[in-house]
Amino acid sequence: MALTLYNTRTRQKESFEPKDTKKIGMYVCGPTVYDRAHIGNARPVVVYDVLYRLLKHLYPKHDVTYVRNITDVDDKINAAAKQRGISIKELTEETTKFFHEDMAALNALPPDIEPRATAHIPEMIAMIERLIAGGHAYAAEGHVLFSVSSDANYGKLSGRTLDEMIAGARVEVAPYKKDPSDFVLWKPSSGDEPGWQSPWGYGRPGWHIECSAMSTKYLGESFDIHGGGRDLIFPHHENEVAQSCCANKHSDFARFWVHNGFLTVGGEKMSKSLGNFFTVRELLEKGIDGETFRFVLLSTHYRQPLDWNDKAVADAEKSLNGFYRALGMSGYEGAGDNLPENVLSALCNDMNLAPVIEQMHLLARSIYKTENLEEKRILGAQLKAISGLLGILQKDPEVWFQKGILSTEGGHYSISSPQEQINSLIEARNAAKKSKNFAEADRIRNELLAMGIVLEDTRDGTTWRRA
Ligand code: AMP
Ligand code: ZN
Could you tell me if the CB of 36 is within 6 A of ligand 1? Predict the structure, then answer.
């Protein structure tokens, strides 16, 4: 089945064909490791993890290489290390380890290659030298700058005019720049700042050149897919294209540019600078299971904004309870089989997950309903096949239900034991019945049923048993 992806470069959905008959390359901009990842940072990780799983599924004969870098040289890192009184190396190693742990908790597969910027300085220097030799960059006062006016294609990815770019990026006007929109490829380091010897003196690379050098090294001058959050389109990705295409004459760099929408809180982009963020770790520690977390991130189309709120978390938990319940009832224990056609076609339609999730609910309902054990097993295998592509339902259903049940209220998440939760739901149902709110009473009964709890109303009150 043909995969269609929205390509930022052409601003339309396009049919994806691998460039090579044997391999597919995908590069995604990774974290700058100075602090714990927030849940906005987790969104691209989960989105491109699904794309990675999908590519491997669709192209089993291709060697799919997923590269996601670690930016371990950056002024924010220098400042954070100084503030904490630890070395830069200590800070970046600790933060990288935390990032790996947090993303593993979200069932994100590790990329095939995870290059660190500081391990690729010679490649960056070589690329900068090629840019200077080609008349696309110039050295001035220990800096090297990319000359934006030397590149006729500059601005095409983001679709901005030069004036818009200058206004949007609040570019730094500096005496050593020939043009205010020229951007830094290399800058001098002094004192305790990290640095390397280079033809332009002791210094360190700019952020954009890292991704150009590392993607070229591992995926070649032209590759299939480049991803990242939409905030990176300009200036980061625009600058990556300029550097790579000017340094490598025959390169068209990434053919597909895929960008995820923002994760928001109260409609505002979550970001460290606004201070409106929660870290992945905080939420995991408050009791949100990594799969619930992941399911929230997948519940909205990847290009749309996704607002994080209690309801979204509670809904995700409820859906997963239902899926796990069905999986447990199905008796199926393998890795999945017989992926439904409509699921694959929705995934291939620019990763449209809404019909996929709907199909999972349908399968779960059919598993509850049918009395035929073989049919239950077959449906369970389908449910598992879908969930393998989404990276959910990876636990044993028993283990899932043992963890207790999540309550959400005003940003406070708490886990109660299954027993406590069942008792409080029974109380809530009794109260609903007393006030003749039978719809709510039925809803609670069904919610419990989805958790595998059957209620029995007797003259002495309500009792429960496991189904
Ligand atoms: P950073 O460490 O800020 O460079 O971000 C790492 C990745 O997270 C990049 O791909 C960003 O585009 C992405 N990102 C940052 N904030 C958000 C957000 N609120 N929603 C979605 N993606 C984000
Ligand atoms: Zn990048």
Answer: no
